[in-house]
Amino acid sequence: MATRRARCSKCGRAILVPIELEEYGYATSITMICSGCNSRGSSQQPNYPFVNNNAPPPPTYGRRPSWPQTLMAPQHSMSPPSPYGNKRAVLFGISYGNRANSLKGSLNDVHSMKYFLTQNLGFPTDSIRMLTDEPGERNPMRIPTKYNMRMAMRWLVEGCQPGDSLVLHFSGHGSREVDHSMDEVDGYDEAICPVDYESEGKILDDEINATIVRPLPHGAKLHAVIDTCFSGTVLDLPFMCRINRKGYYGWEDHRHPRAGYKGTRGGLAVCISACDDDGSAADTSAFSGMESAGALTYSFIQAMQVGRNLTYGQLLNGMRSTIRGAREKFGPDSQEHVMENRQQYAHEPQLSSSEKFDIYSKYIAM
């Protein structure tokens, strides 16, 4: 590394300073102090003798200069691991009470998902936060208001470490909003609706991505199961998988020049959603004939229980087969089938991801 001679600003002793500091425009913000003066005490810069702490940090883009450690800004250590272990989940189930748009199956969905995670995938009960609007819920922090849902998503990724497996499940209403930030390929943001969305607003895909996708470190995994309308790209992940009826697939690139980076810090984020961005989803009793359930949640759990060594392609094909079977069970002329909203079958489960992969060779690890 090239250097130049300079004088210590305290004692005038000759010292060597890297020329690359001038190359990046930091010559005016450097305080030249020799090692002798630094060892005698400088309360403002005990560990970084050449760098003025009031100066902006060195640029991190482009070519990285080969500066010695003493010339670099302090490195922030990774936050301590979560006390809730390396398997954590947040489950949102919202029925919206007695409103005209109330849902019957959302509460069943989250209880079924919690049972599946604890009994089949080894998630500890105390590592799962479930927010519902059940009438008997007395803990105000467990009600899926916009504020509580935001806090729960932050809790999910807090202290995330390599090897962690995170799950986000949402069963409720979804929405499309005009994209005012101009960073969506189709011109619309996707959103999920908290229980108080009419007064507090919805949670947009931009916020969901920034909260639980971008902080994901290398070696960590996030799986989101989103059982709602307009949910195809609700995590704003860069790539969308398209599969035809014969099982052939391809990845669509949903990155937008104005969007900036929407991926992770090296981890894998996968979203399994109920339908495409312009699709509808509904709860139904077609599967059990009794209790209502979201088609996505039910088919996901059924497909995952087939076996442990399941690829993403097998999962999607299994889910779609379950949903098609329910449609054929009642037939096109069944009054019950007509009553339960034909649009729920017009679109099928979708897969989006932070990275491309072979869906028929990559195994699911949750």
Automatic annotation (TrEMBL):
InterPro entries: Caspase-like_dom_sf, Metacaspase, Pept_C14_caspase. Residues 87-354 form the Peptidase C14 caspase domain. GO terms for cellular component: cytoplasm. Residues 45-80 are annotated as: Disordered. GO terms for molecular function: cysteine-type endopeptidase activity. Residues 45-54 have a biased composition (Polar residues). Belongs to the peptidase C14B family. This is Peptidase C14 caspase domain-containing protein. It comes from Trifolium subterraneum (Subterranean clover).
